[in-house]
Input
Amino acid sequence: MDSLLSVFPSKDFSLLGIILAAPLLGAFVNGVWGRRLGRDAVRLMAITAIAVSFGAALLTFLALDREVTHAGHGHVKLAWTAWDWLYTTGKSETQIPIALRFSVDALSGVMMLVITGVGLLIHIYASTYMWDDKSYWRFFCYLNLFVFSMLVLVLGDNMPLLFVGWEGVGLCSYLLIGFWYGKMANAAAGKKAFIANRIGDFGLICAMFLFVHYTGALDWNGIEAGSGSLVTVNEATQVHVWPIGGGQFTGFLKFLQPDSPITITAATAVGLALLLGATGKSAQIPLYVWLPDAMAGPTPVSALIHAATMVTAGIYLICRLNFVFVLAPGVMATVAVIGAATAFLAATIALVQNDIKKVLAYSTVSQLGFMFLGVGMGAFTAGFFHVFTHAFFKACLFLGAGSVIHGMHARIHDDDKAQDMRKMGGLRKYMPLTFWTFLISTAAIVGFPLTSGFFSKDEILFKTMTTELVHPDAERLGKKVTFVQSLWGARDPSHFYVPPAWLGTALYWVGIAAATMTAFYMSRVVILTFFGEFRGWKLGRPSQIDAHEAAAHDDAHGDDAHGDDDGEHHHEEDLTKPGYAPHESPRPMTIPLILLAVFAAFAGILNPGLLKHFGLPLPLEHWLEPLFEESVKVGVHAKEGAEHMELMCTAGAFGAFAVGVGLAYWVYVVQKGAPAKQWAEAAPKLYKLLLDKWRVDEAYEASVLSGVDALADTATSVDKGVVDGILARLTALLVAAFGTILRALQTGVVHVYAGMMVVGLAGLGWFFVMPHPDGHVVEKGSGDYSIVAAPGVGYGYIWAEDGAKKPEKEVFSGTAAFPLHVEPGNTKKVELKVRNAFGIVGTKTFEVTAPAKAAPAEVIEMGQNGHGS
Amino acid sequence: MLLQAFAISPLLMVGIGAMLLMMAEAFSKVRGGLALGAAAVCFAGVACAAGVWMYGVETIPGIDAFSPWLRVDRFSLFFDALLCLGAGLSCLMAGGYLPEHNLDRGEFYSLLLLSTFGAMILSAAGDVLTLFLGLETMSLGVYCLAAFRRASARSSEGALKYFLLGSFAAALLLYGFALLYGVTGHTDLQGIGDAMAKGNIRNPMAIMGLVLILVGLAFKVSAVPFHMWTPDAYEGAPTPATNFMAVAVKGAAFAMMLRVLLTAFGDPRSASWASGWPPALAWIAVITMTVANLVAGRQESVKRMLAYSSVAHAGYILVGMVATMHSATQASAGVLFYLLTYTVSTAGAFGALILCGRRGAEAVTYEDLAGIGRRHPAAALPFAFFLLSLAGVPPTAGFFGKWFVFRSAMEGGFYWLTIIAFINSVIGAYYYLRVLVFMYMREPAAGAPVATPMRSGYVTAALILSAVLVIALGLTPTKSLSVVFQAAAIFGG
Output
């Protein structure tokens, strides 16, 4: 590793360039030549690109580890500046550089490994899963581009570069959700995802503006160095919420003006703006609605983008800027509350869904909620650890679901039906590898003891219970107020709000409830899919299957609908006829499953927080400590007796697991699903509400969207009537008419051309022969002004103040500047006569008004180009 | 002595290279390879200019020995490199175009190199006599190049018009210089400038001299209404020659304009916002942009559209020229950067147009290009890319070119001029995008002749070079900006 560091010094670690360039090259090659290259070459290119990237990432990680060991303690970074990109101007004309600079530290190092590692496995999986798709090359072009964008997001060393990656992954997500754009629903889902993300992006952009203004920097180090100025007791330098931007309401709007302006600290504003961005990308309330619909994309996409990597970008952002968030405990609490609420809400919806991918989608939303809960309560390591473990088990679950769907597609070609768990069952026998890997991942997500999810989720819940948020600047600031007071109470910028200590306890119980439901619905998925009898179609022996079916089966892969743009030509088969049982997926699909399952089972040893009393090390916590240490020290306070609560918290979490799984076993195995039906019948409205996902989409439709629609309709009618109808046609007509006229001048006759030159010469001559009297007024203060005439070759001037006597003989010998004194409130007129080199005279009159007060002078110019002798 | 020769090595390289190529063409029995030779000479010229630049031209002793006839400074070195780049790209295109269209006669390259030589003299001239010599050396070569398609009546017609009107303009320019010599007693620009600054001269004659010189300059940069030769000459000339005219001739003309106006007429009276050359140029810029863009939108021929587009770009550059009255260095740096981006984008567009056609089926009209995006994406994609750069779409070079010129105009306080330029670039986008519409969204009418792309390593090389430069200038404008600032620093202030 030392030799590696001698080739790539830590200040100029250009190996990062290779990590980034490989996927970009893959996307470029597949995008440009993919169609002609053929599937094998596309597959080779795509997988090689990610493999190279992963290899380089691994080397980078080892080099980073070496640097950390060398440095002992502290925040170690390997950085590489590709080039200086642009500059922007900050407060008081400071130049803020925006360099194309990438860096890797403990946090982004882990993310980078997850992205390239899980990305590689999913690429391998998808190379088989998507084999029959017509647009194979397009898929891998997008997928490689996604990996590139995600790496830019994670490795970028400043906000704008992160934003480039942020937008890049959004774009790729959009392209991949709508990958089968032939179907209206898919295209709509892509659009929905894009728009929801755009709302979040607005927050991110606002945050960047605030950073430039308050911290004077956009790179991580600069923001950290300048973050002190985000908290200020000076009301004038805080962010004015009402009136917006610190304006004043006057006139009839005066009633809107509060006694004192409502302000929040810049840290709060920037934190809320970042949070908006994070809720968009990471699918939290209120912007979570796009993620479940995003499952319209191919399953490997769901696994890579909408489970393992992209959706965790919001948590990455919060972890990255943890030192900003701890400055605003109110925002931290908001993050935690949003996380807990999302975890709970999504889990309730997942209880009743029948589409296997929908359940997994809501479970992803729910798990992301847990991560938010963790980072919101200041448990950055725990939250990030859940990102890490979730990447493995959720990717494995999605890929397993993909494998199941792949098997179902043998005879059910409609996507919605093939994903319906009511048609599955008993697949354990036919798809053993898929079953076991799915089971292991489920064990991880429901928190089966000693699996990865057990450690990460329980750590979050434990930290939630045992910490309270404090204000890092409490001593300097002054008075602590309640939440209500902080909004409507007496305004004093030195007041600050800190969430109450019971918040953690309350959120813990919400988390426990969500975890219980998680255990229930995940067990339900496993039971419905893999246990019991197969319900998809009638199974039969080969002898019972006619020749046609057999032939179709041989050709099953070539005919699978899941990889086709147009599922139109697929006739629905008669499922009452006997057919082959679903079969296990081919090896390129099962090997990634196995590897992911291994990680899902054992990744917990990287941070077995609950076992630290047994002397086990906590490598991840130690690894990330330099990043979060300071923030945790100042922003989070451990409750008294926290260490004694560990066992109790664990018991709670284990209870959640046991109750959820046990209940599911009782309902779906012992009672064969009867109680579920009874409950649904007992509370039909609630059941319907859950099935309809709390009708949040409909609520948005009725409130926000209808408003937007109305606005859009108005704009459309204006656009069609006024802009298109009158303005556009008029300008087009004018442009075309003038163009035609001017074109007619281009006769091709050389005399006309020469004639036009003469016209031009004459015009220029006219301009230079005519005098151009002009000038501007310079204020010298205390009523003194000077009118400075514009210079010209051979110009002579005469000045005449209004009312002054005209001299007998005009001599153009005046100076170019004319001094003038005007009493306040008075107006004076001055006439300027100019004679140019050709002896032609022009005049211009200036009117100078001195204001009553010391405001700038108002100057009215009354020019006219008079000319005479 | 040797160092002085080194200082003018770009000039020597191109001049001697042109002679050698002429000899080789006359006496060698081996055919072909001339394009490669000519391109190599040009890129060697670029390399020489870069070498002198990096050596530090100010540190060469006795560099003033050429003054005032030739000013060897960073400004002229920048233009040496720029003109050689444009010429080199034209040579590469000619290497593919001429054989394809049965025009492969060797004198093309010698003419082109001699013309480049004249253009380089022009950009370095500090005296009106060398300036005029350079101008005529450049123009004579270009007249021949424009007439190069002897079998085509259009080509001869366009060239003849160009020659007649060019002589007219040259006469006006010469007359202007003569008047200035009469009133100031100087032929060197610095001397004229000093005399104008002192002001004790016979002003009417000096002003008339300025007017005539402005007309001559406006003709060379093909500003409206002195532009009318442009579409005919551009359309008639073989496309590589068109490219040379659009890129190198125009670049040299702007170099001449910058030097003449800022050196000889840089005093506050001549450069007055009320009555000097800036308002005159501002009017010319407005008319140029507006007329060129309006007419370009009405063209059926893509080549003619590109001709008008080059006129429109001259208008944008003139906006930057106007801004030089407030901040000579910054605004002329903007002009130089614009010329750089304009050179690579235009060369790319002409190269792509060449690539889209072949013998007997040259791509000329919009209809010819219909559907080519689907049939031959490899030819259409670069075309689209360079047109986007010409339209000024980020992150291409064209965007930053416009950005810096418009910004210097805004900082100079020329708001209405900038607004008109903005509106014009919107109109401009219309006809650039129209090509894209035809290439990607239209299918050729049944039975209509369709253009099929040619294959040529030369043209491909020119396209790749331009594309790399367009992307590089668009993504990392900072480095090239520092270069143009150093080049523009000779004007001071």
